[in-house]
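Ex. 9. Protein: Phosphoesterase.
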Amino acid sequence: MSTKIALISDSHSYIDHKTLQYLESVDEIWHAGDIGALQVMEQLPVEKRVRAVFGNIDDEACRARYPEWDAFEVEGIKVLMTHIGGKPPRYAKGVWSRIKAEMPQVFICGHSHICKVEFDQKLNCLYMNPGAIGQQGFHQMRTMLLFELSDGKIKNLQVVELGRRGR
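Predicted structure tokens for Phosphoesterase:
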């Protein structure tokens, strides 16, 4: 058995029909923060499992509904997710020690609006940042990640380009 995942971040109160179409084909949707408005989350397919963390732009309503950090396990893979994570080898303050303590196989963050997947050999952990699906920010291309979790492995990882920001 496998679980199909859509990883999104930095919606900044924006989600479009094209993004929602991709979300229909997965089992779980993970949002790595900067949701912007809870209306974004309310547009997600209701039958999907949603996991999310709040980001630095999120208001009290988002912060009341979602945690700053989320640690969970799916298909034998331990995941740690927060919004501001930095990137290997220069993680944000306190992140490296948190990864070291939790020992996830996958660390997920957003914030940079830069899509990046990299294996950190020092932490023995896969770093994943899906970029941004929203219109706010300096990124040129709106992106998300799709992948499958099966038997303790990540399979069929793909970067989805959703179109240029501002169009």
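Check your answer against this statement. The two ends are 38 Å apart (CA to CA).
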